[in-house]
């Protein structure tokens, strides 16, 4: 079973965490939501929404996953980018050839700016937050979801379901993504 870690820092965009997490779980992936920079498992998202994570990031930061997902939203993205343990965790996974995914502001501020892993890569992000992709040597696309090697990026809340399906396709198979899409009335 594929192991997935979704990073949740205070101020993340709820749709960008919940939609991909739900779709990946429907596909049979072992998905854990990790609370980053919090004392407990509750994480305050944007828009007054609260979620309860499965694990504390501090407790799993030395583990290896098949896929690491960074939701966007502000200040959630800035909180991920400012956490050196998160930055090293993402860089380690990318270097090992594991799937690394980010959506909204996270491709620019986390993957490109903080981790420096977008050089020579194509990626997309939320308009106005995707600049760091180009500034660090990457190429910005306007696709809803962009995959370049082991890096998968997406634009924002409205593309979070497409993002989740793209993660299933990359992690498991195109057939499984189609099956989940059909069951969720996304196809």
From TrEMBL:
<protein>
    <submittedName>
        <fullName>DJ-1 family protein</fullName>
    </submittedName>
</protein>
<dbReference type="InterPro" id="IPR050325">
    <property type="entry name" value="Prot/Nucl_acid_deglycase"/>
</dbReference>
<dbReference type="InterPro" id="IPR002818">
    <property type="entry name" value="DJ-1/PfpI"/>
</dbReference>
<dbReference type="GO" id="GO:0005737">
    <property type="term" value="C:cytoplasm"/>
</dbReference>
<dbReference type="InterPro" id="IPR029062">
    <property type="entry name" value="Class_I_gatase-like"/>
</dbReference>
<dbReference type="InterPro" id="IPR006287">
    <property type="entry name" value="DJ-1"/>
</dbReference>
<feature type="domain" description="DJ-1/PfpI">
    <location>
        <begin position="3"/>
        <end position="169"/>
    </location>
</feature>
<dbReference type="Pfam" id="PF01965">
    <property type="entry name" value="DJ-1_PfpI"/>
</dbReference>
<dbReference type="GO" id="GO:1903189">
    <property type="term" value="P:glyoxal metabolic process"/>
</dbReference>
<keyword id="KW-0677">Repeat</keyword>
């Amino acid at each position: 079973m594929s192991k997935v870690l979704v990073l949740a820092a205070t101020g993340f965009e709820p749709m960008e965490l919940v939609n991909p997490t739900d779709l990946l779980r429907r596909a049979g992936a072992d998905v854990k939501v990790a609370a980053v920079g919090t004392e407990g498992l509750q994480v305050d998202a944007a828009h007054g929404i609260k979620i309860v994570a499965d694990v504390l990031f501090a407790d799993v930061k030395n583990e290896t996953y098949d896929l690491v997902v960074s939701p966007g939203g502000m200040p959630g993205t800035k909180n991920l980018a400012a956490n050196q343990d998160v930055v090293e965790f993402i860089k380690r996974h990318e270097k090992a050839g594991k799937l690394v995914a980010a959506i909204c502001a996270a491709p620019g501020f986390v993957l490109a700016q903080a981790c420096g892993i977008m050089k020579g890569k194509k990626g997309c992000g939320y308009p106005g937050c995707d600049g760091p992709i180009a500034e660090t040597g990457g190429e910005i696309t306007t696709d809803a979801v962009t995959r370049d090697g082991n890096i998968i990026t997406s634009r924002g809340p409205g593309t979070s379901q497409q993002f989740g399906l793209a993660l299933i396709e990359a992690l498991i198979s195109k057939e499984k993504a189609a099956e989940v899409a059909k069951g969720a009335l996304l196809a």
